[in-house]
Amino acid sequence: MPPLAPPNLAALLGAANPSAEAGLRGAGGFVAYRDIAEGTSLGGRRDELAGRSVLLAVASQLASARLLLELDGIAARVMIVPPDFSADQMTAAALQANVDVIVHDDRTPELGLDAMRVGVMPLHEAEPCQSATRSTEWVLPTSGTTGAPKLVAHLLSGLLGAVRPRASDEAQPVWSTFYDIRRYGGMQIFLRAATSGVTLVVTEPDEPLADHVARMAEAGVTHLSGTPSHWRRLLMSPHAKRISPRYVRLSGEIADRAILDSLKAAYPQAAVIHAYASTEAGVGFEVTDGQEGFPASYLDGVGEVEMRVIDGSLRLRSSRVARRYIGRDDLAVSDTEGFVDTDDMVEQHGDRFYFLGRRAGIINVGGLKVHPEEVEQVINQHEAVRMSLVKARRSPITGDLIVADVVLKSTAENQQAQVFREEILANCRARLDRHKAPVMINFVPTLDLQASGKLKRRHA
Amino acid sequence: MSVRLTVTSIVKEVAAEQNKPLADLNDNLGLAESGLDSLCFAIIVARLEDKLGVDPFSAAEEVYFPVTFGDLVALYENAATRAA
Question: Of all residues in chain A, what percent carry a pLDDT higher than 90?
Fold first, then answer.
């Protein structure tokens, strides 16, 4: 007897029995899950996509969500590209993933690929697909900014590894995320919402924060996720007060004490949780005690996830790890034992591990290593600081020096800024080795974020 | 402010920030005996570049590494003159 096919995403949504009011809320309006379950966005061409390698190239996040719900179990592979991908990047990803169907809308650029094109259509009623029994490969690009992104393949079962069904006595949440659902961090939130049939409020690329927050407030958002940089941007805006989530989730960057404390102060009724996940390693763990870093006891195992620290970097093994890289047979996602090297460097102090930063971001000051993130965490401890970016300045003497761009919570006059500068530097010198303290601090009005919601670094 | 005064004030400023006891600055003082280490020099060079707009250590022509404080001042005076 052949093994039973795992349930596809639409089946899981159906099993969650969503209410008529539950669905996806985007800038373009509201779509009920029930209408998605009983309809198609492919205008009668769904059967042509069976067993194909499909590039999901529609601009709208809401349409992407509908299509993911429809295509899981039907397509052999769905190549998911984030909305900031250029036509060249889309083409490169499509070639690498052997795409033979492009699902597009009127904003999809011309890609010059030899592939069938299927336009996304408004939802209309259709019979549920009876043959959606494939284990569709979900392919996501890595979020690094240097070099070509790698394409990472997951199966739905692995993506859902950290998703637990909602307890029956638990109040129905309303989810939102600052991430795009076409990135791993946002995908997790989409899958949580869809498999439990609860409303998800999504944002569109380049949408003003105020509009997203207004939609969240209207929908009564209870659960909200984003990177620490996303959250800092929210706290810097006057709109933060318009919502009162009871579950605040950070991931994708180091959650330092300053942002955890700021969020607890801004949302005293909320549980503030930071999660560790990566596109390759999947969801690793959550930290629920409100403190930075994670307990050393996690190395004994967290649920089904096994953790190791070797040469200072965190390694994870679980069923949530990506299956493989697509189109790169020369690269392995994990080592021979199945552990993924996350390239995130950690250090143990007492019974806790703390994140130092990315391996590739290390700055070399006269032969001594500095992680920009560990310096930023100290700068951010100053009560006037909202966020900071530490970077290298070339030096003919030591190779590099440490300098920092700092965003204050509110603008300061020259004299006040000079006092802050002295205080920040004094704190850095007190808490960090000499070579790690910035030699210059520039106050800047904002710091750029990547489309992934992480701080834009030269070597991210 | 003259180049000499600028160099002197930044050297003193960096030594104080870095908690390095600084010897009396005179033209014959050997930099190796000044109390400043290479991190201090790196910071001094960066600050002087911002202040004077020149970095003689990264200039295209060959640089004679200054041995005394007088050499250091002369290096910046020459670079500033060339840049002017």
Answer: 81
| Separation in Å, CA A253 to CA A204, A210, A353 | 21, 23, 15
Q: Residue ranges of chain A with pLDDT lower than 70?
A: 1-5, 144-147, 459-460
Q: pTM of the full predicted structure?
A: 0.88
Distance CA A421, CA A124 (A): 60
Single-letter code of the amino acid located at A323: R
> How far A406 CA sits from the closest chain B CA (Å)?
18
Q: Which residues does chain B have with pLDDT short of 70? A: 60-62
A407 phi and psi, to 5 degrees? -105, 125
Cα A232 to Cα A93, A161, A407: the distances in Å are 32, 29, 10
Q: What is the pLDDT of residue A356?
A: 93
Rounded to 10°, the helix A228-235/A257-266 angle is: 50
CB contact under 8 A, A401 and B42: yes
For B58, other C-beta atoms within 10 Å of its C-beta total 12
Which H helix or E strand runs over B37? none
Q: What is the ipTM of this complex?
A: 0.91
The DSSP code sequence of A240-263 is GGG---SEEEE-SS---HHHHHHH
| Contact in structure between A180 and A189 (CB atoms under 8 Å) | no
What CA–CA distances, in Å, run from A4 to A13, A76, A296, A393, A427? 19, 17, 39, 58, 60
The per-type count for chain B, helices as H runs and strands as E runs, is 3, 0
Phi and psi angles of residue A187, each rounded to the nearest 5 degrees, phi first: -55, -40
Residue B58 touches chain A, beta carbons under 8 Å: yes
Find out whether A105 and A63 touch, Cβ atoms under 8 Å.
Answer: yes
The Cα diameter of chain A in Å comes to 78
- DSSP run (H or E) holding A31: strand A29-32
As a residue count, chain B comes to: 84
Question: Which residues in chain A have Cβ-Cβ distances shorter than 8 Å to B58?
Answer: 394, 396
**Exposed/middle/buried for residue A1 (C-beta within 10 Å: 0-12, 13-18, 19+):** exposed
The C-alpha atoms of residue B7 and residue B47 are separated, in whole angstroms, by 9
Interface A:B, Cβ pairs < 8 A: 38
- Using DSSP, state whether A314 is helix, strand or coil: strand
Q: What is the distance in angstroms between the Cα of B41 and the nearest Cα belonging to chain A?
A: 7
Q: Choose the closest CB to A401 out of B17, B46, B55.
A: B46
Q: Which residues of chain A make contact with B47, given a CB cutoff of 8 A?
A: 439-440
A435, A439, A441: which to substitute to probe chain B, counting the most B Cβ within 10 Å? A439
Residues in Cβ contact with A277 at an 8 Å cutoff, skipping those fewer than 6 apart: A162, A184, A185, A188, A251, A252, A283, A284
Residue A189: CB atoms within 10 Å: 24
Based on DSSP, count helices (H) and strands (E) in chain A, helices before strands.
11, 27
